[in-house]
Amino acid sequence: MDKKLAITNSIRKLRFFADEMTQLELAERAGVSRQTIVALEAGKYTPSLELAFRIARVFGVGIADVFACGQEEKEP
Amino acid sequence: MSYQSKRTIVSMLAGIALAIAYIFYALGGGAPDPNDLRAWATAMLVFIGIGVAALVVIQIIFHILFAVGTAVRRRDCDDKQVERILSATMSEDEMDRLITLQSTHAGYICAGIGLPAALVMLALGASAVAALHTALGAFAAGSLVEGIVSIRLYEGGVRRG
């Protein structure tokens, strides 16, 4: 059976440590809509590689510090 | 519910209202003769034109109401801050494009069934007007499916691949 990787992220935590950066500010700095940041934090959207790098750059960390590959989940 | 979902629901409601208006027209006394293909085609074109114009007007009204609603909800913020919020909410990005791609795909599949369905109806001896309405109905259903899929992806999440 085809399995997909579960991509998790630490955006909420990174925002907290970035002086409680708002979703609006992160959206503006990453060049996406606030809705996309909301979906990312809720794990409802997996970003493109480009957006992943842009978000990591906003926080001044590496991409692996923002996104991680979780346990494999079964394809629905 | 997100801004995009609300916008899609408004568009869907406008489309449903237009479809209901057309059904009333088609089943009412003022409808063209069942065999007058030209009159039916003209009526459909008129309704499509009205639909496009109504959709543009409704979207403009929705955007104005949404902006006013946001400004009222964020009355503690200054104008510049409200403008920032609206800009960050209404801007289109990669997630919107991915959802549009997937929902349009679903809509096209549904609309695409209309042509073979119409041909099957003609082959089975149905009138040309009935076949025309089958194709039109498939496009309307496709538009509805596109909206439903779009809302589902916005609210439930979207994945690549």
Short description:
With 76 residues, chain A is α+β, with helices and mostly antiparallel strands.
Describe what this molecule looks like in 3D:
The complex is a heterodimer of chains A (76) and B (161). Helix content of chain A is 50%, strand content 20%. Chain A is an alpha+beta fold and 76 residues long. The model of chain A has no long low-confidence stretch (mean pLDDT 86). Chain B has 161 residues and is mainly alpha-helical. Chain B has six helices and no strands. In chain B, α1 (3-27) runs antiparallel to α6 and α5 packs antiparallel against α6. The longest helix of chain B is centred in the middle third of the chain and has 37 residues, at 37-73. Chain B is elongated, with a radius of gyration of 20 Å. The mean pLDDT of chain B is 89. The interface between A and B is medium-sized, with 20 and 21 residues.
Based on the model shown, name its key terms.
heterodimer; A: 76 residues; alpha+beta; two-stranded antiparallel sheet; 5 helices; B: 82% helix; 0% strand
What is the topology?
The complex is a heterodimer of chains A (about 80) and B (about 160).
Chain A: E1 3-9, H1 11-17, H2 23-30, H3 34-41, H4 49-59, H5 63-66, E2 67-74
Antiparallel strand pairs in A: 1-2
Chain B: H1 3-27, H2 37-73, H3 79-90, H4 94-112, H5 114-123, H6 128-156
Helix pairs in contact in B: 1-2, 1-6, 2-6, 4-6, 5-6
